[in-house]
Specification:
The structure is a homotrimer of 343-residue chains. Chain A has 343 residues and is of the alpha/beta class. Chain A is built from five helices and 39 strands. At the A-C interface, α3, α4 and α5 of A face β21, β22, α4 and α5 of C.
């Protein structure tokens, strides 16, 4: 594929400086880019690398102009890069139809232009929207609803009655709608609490590989519009994740916790059950959240505290031996003072 | 489905107060319940919510009587709720038989009333008990034994020679009997130690989604009766989990560790190898266990200490900056005292 | 199977003491071994157990001779044990051919002596080396390359264009080549950054069950020769893992981090993105790595510090209440001194 620099500038709505007819064959990082490729500079920190780069053109933020080659100014060079990468890598979807080697249940409603690969299982009474793709090894239970343009990678499991929106992407190995972990102690062992709820995943959600999104005990576990979940994440029964929230790999969220909008939980965070995490909260990697968090706070640590305080504490902890020496020294000096005063 | 309040009272062996003929159509939480549904109050903390609830009847603990509607007194309202939920949600199992699209090996012993779905693989010489359910995408290796009434969800893998008891439930994506992680350094790289043991899972065990239960190097990895394991849990080779032990999501237990009965490991706990965790031990979320723990103890933290001490330490750590100020202040005051005494 | 002690001694290149004709039927741990089996002693710590063992012969390190039965001296008894275990447990591979129930795409190059089981999916233009084994439920995408003697367990997913070397072992449920987690904020939601790179796995790598190895945004995520990865490990886009590095269960490594050779990351470690972890680094369990680490260091804690310092800090933290009491006592004594001096 080949685009002119002018085409790229209008694709990202950027301000072009240089030859609009320059041919660009691809996009790459500053170090990898060749002279027919475009690269990008997210900020002043990368100016030196930009000068050393062999890229034929650059996307730069406003203010960065001394670049010695054609460039496009963009308010958000990273986003512009993503859009150009999409332009160059896009392959039109060619619907496969329904493979005769797929197992389709009774009374399944199939939308237009499906791609249902071999070795797929779809249960009875399930409703698939238009342009749904189910790769080989995908299991979709009975009574499931899947919206238009949703893409499900190989070996994903979606269990009975779950509801999945439009333009959702689910990566391989993820399990949607497994039983929530609920057992009532009866004195000597445990009685399984039936998990009769569902999982509802709204439009434009993306879920990584080998995640587990449990169905609700009653009602629904609810992943709201635009949520992005990385790999190996655990979402327990009746959890709610608010719009555009970001969950990094290996996070675990316990039952009935409600997470707000635009929250970021960094990798390996653990959240206790029945909490409320407010909108725009940011939680540092490996933190342990055992209390609800008001909107807008940044917290870190296990148990988590305000991020600023956590940084201070980490600093002090790294100097605890020194602090202990100071205390021992003080003890000695105070004892000497006491003795001096006594005599 | 519809039950009378009297039927429900005898189903949970509770003491009925009110109209035995009242029709109940379902069970729900206090906030969701409608006037034909029953709800439950686990303790005095929920009395206000109970008063506000539209539920037509309530299950309450002994002593809570001022409820202004029909109620059933139960010593364990949570268990009673679970039992009624089971009553209302129960669907009789309809055996599917063996799908012609399942791949069944040679010399497989099939029990009565099987449900072997399409796209299942069962290896040679495997023995399946009565009323076993294997959903689509399940892989069962060669020489495996699976007990009566065991239910295996889609895309589970059970590898060769593993032994699974009766009434076991295994959720999607879980791998039983992968190789333990064993390598002997030979000076420049690693020699793979064959993992020739098995996994044995006893009766009434439930294992969540996307767990990994490794086979033993020699002998067996052993999950004993009644153990309940949440999602994304790692159980390494030769681990033993004692009866009715509870393992919450994302816990990892290293090789050859022996966990006692009725233990609770909360979410994201890590346990080093070759340890003994005594009966009735409780471990707080995200703790790191590097030493054996005597029976009955509650521990938390990484490295873990007695839970009570951990709470104290967390409190002190959250005030470390204050403590440091105090120390600096003391240094100054002691220096002044020394100077005063000198002069 | 039956071997003579003499055969075993030459198999492990050890020094035989005792009857070379002694028949040995297997290998087992000191406690489990029967009188026709051989066991092993890794060091002086196990001498008592060795004396109590019923094993008919022992592998011992140099210097341990007072063993009261035939023995073989080996510089590395653990490695010798692994080699003998392999000798006794080895089963010759019998190629299955290509099952008619496997789904093989167009233009697939199949090597000699394949074992392609039922319910396998192989995409178009994929190249399989000689003696490749793909178990039931394995998904291999289009344009994938898999080297000679590679073994892929059931329900593994390898997505388009990934490259896998020779003698690689991938355990069940693992996903190779899922999209990296990359989203560019556009002010109100997130724009998906296409992940157009691949995963390259070099020769002699072993990857555990239910791991996730993401494809690169551009370029490759690269697992180099001899790396061994345990279960449930997350390797993000563009990560490089150097030769013979060991990653224990539930570790997560964020995007673009480069890990050197012979590194050991213990269980549940988390590593931030864009770091460099030098050769021979050792990281303690549950540590959080937020800064690059020079070669050869041992670190622990979250955030991680030198392992030695971490041990000291843990000791002090476990005595924080005592330290606080000392400080309070000092405050009182200093106040008394001040008063005494005042008066």
């Amino acid at each position: 594929m080949e685009k002119t620099l002018g085409e790229l500038a209008s694709w990202i709505a950027g301000e072009l400086h240089g030859d609009a007819q320059l041919k660009i064959t691809g996009v790459a990082g500053l170090e990898e880019a060749r002279h027919t490729e475009i690269s990008f500079v997210v900020g002043p920190k990368y100016v030196r690398k930009a000068h050393e780069s062999r890229a034929g053109a650059l996307i730069v933020p406003p203010g960065l102009r001394d670049i010695e080659r054609p460039f496009i100014v963009s308010d958000n060079p990273y986003l512009a890069f993503a859009k150009i990468l999409k332009l160059f890598s896009h392959k039109p979807r060619v619907p496969l139809g329904v493979s005769p080697k797929a197992n389709i249940g009774e009374n399944v409603q199939m939308g237009d232009e499906p791609s249902i690969h071999p070795l797929v299982f779809v249960g009875d009474n399930t409703v698939l929207g238009d342009r749904v793709t189910l790769h080989a090894g995908v299991y979709v239970g009975a009574g499931v609803q899947i919206g238009d343009d949703t893409l499900i990678y190989p070996n994903v499991t979606v269990l009975d009655r779950c509801i999945i929106g439009k333009r959702v992407i689910i990566h391989s190995g993820t399990v949607v709608g497994g039983d929530g972990f609920g057992f009532a102690p009866d004195g000597h062992s445990y009685f399984k609490i039936p998990q009769v709820g569902i999982v509802q995943i709204d439009d434009d959600v993306e879920i990584g590989a080998n995640c587990t999104i449990d169905r609700a005990t009653m009602g629904k576990t609810w992943i709201q519009r635009g949520v992005k979940i990385d790999n190996l994440v655990q979402v327990a029964h009746n959890v709610v994740l608010g719009e555009n929230t970001i969950i990094i790999a290996q996070v675990g969220i316990s039952g009935s916790t409600v997470v707000g909008k635009n929250v970021i939980l960094a990798g390996q965070v653990g959240v206790t059950g029945h909490l409320e995490i407010g909108d725009n909260v940011r939680v540092g990697a490996q933190s342990g959240i055992a209390k609800s968090i008001p909107p807008g706070q940044s917290v870190s640590g296990s148990p988590a505290i305000a991020h600023r305080d956590w940084l201070k504490n980490c600093h002090i902890i790294s100097r605890l031996p020194e602090l202990r020496r100071t205390i021992r020294d003080l003890e000695k000096r105070v004892a000497e003072l006491e003795q001096a005063l006594d005599s």
